[in-house]
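Good day; I would like, with your permission, to put a structural problem before you. What I wish to show you is a protein chain and, alongside it, a tokenised description of its three-dimensional fold. I would ask you to consider whether the tokens describe a fold that such a sequence might reasonably adopt. You will find the record immediately after this paragraph:
***
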Amino acid sequence: MKKIAFIVWLVVLMLGASFPTYAQEDAILLTFEGAQVDSITWEEFLALEQLTVELTRTNSKGKTTTGVYTGVHWNVLAEAIGAQQAKAVQVIASDGFEQVYPLEVVQAADSVFALYKDGEPITEDPKNGRVWFCASEDYTANFWTKFIVKIVVR
């Protein structure tokens, strides 16, 4: 009887250990308003054509950082969610921060909605949005938004 209980416990433990990865892939990554699609999962986002760019930015405190960001360009994301008619894109972060971008910012060749920085997930904290908008180097760090959870197509 102890052997059966141990096997059941082991199976439950193994299933539980795999849950965070499974939940991350199936959980909603972004929601949308004004698009044909209401949401996208991590797995669906990764299935889109990925773009990797090296960007340097200087924040408002004067600190300069360089990173290699991987994610999806707006044109690819817009096509996937049915938002090709967009005139502007509003992003909303998990802390309530909002910013509206004109199309020329999100469509710049090396602007990216990123999940990875330097090959590592930007964040795995489920309380944060896991997407950053990293604007082209043609724009200042003021055009970056971290921890995005919602995109409103205008």
